[in-house]
Amino acid sequence: MIKVGDRLPALTLMEYQEREGEGCSIGPNKVEIASATAGKTIALFAVPGAFTPTCSVSHLPGYLQRGAEFKAAGVDEIWCVSVNDAFVMGAWARDQGTEGKIRLLADGDAALAKATGLTLDLSGRGLGLRSQRYSMLLQDGVVKVLNVEGAGKLEVSDADTLLAQLRAL
Which residues form the active site (predicted)? Predict the structure, then answer.
């Protein structure tokens, strides 16, 4: 499993763009982790699935509500990663009103979850291989803080906990 001091694997995630912009077209666009984290402080949290109850009601909204505080504490971007496709993540972003506040990134084939050792097998529940719920603080792609949740919990990867840890650094 990934640990504090490790570099996030240099993989590609996908992000659904609502508007055409510099270097990105409408629809799914590649996000190369290595270049997207270079020189930045990123608050990253992962959820088992978009539109799922805890993720939609508590986990993501906490980061949305605390977004300005993360920015004031030195975070350049907040990322939410889930093992869903970019279209689902785009729809969830619209539903949650995250545009310009949180980047919702798709780990469609669970490559990041597998590479970090943070997979969650929900096959018996019809959800297949997913990501565990966790949060991490990245500086220039290196893990500075890592909080991995116990099964079915939201106690250590919430926005308040990561924000307190960020402020303590």
Answer: 55
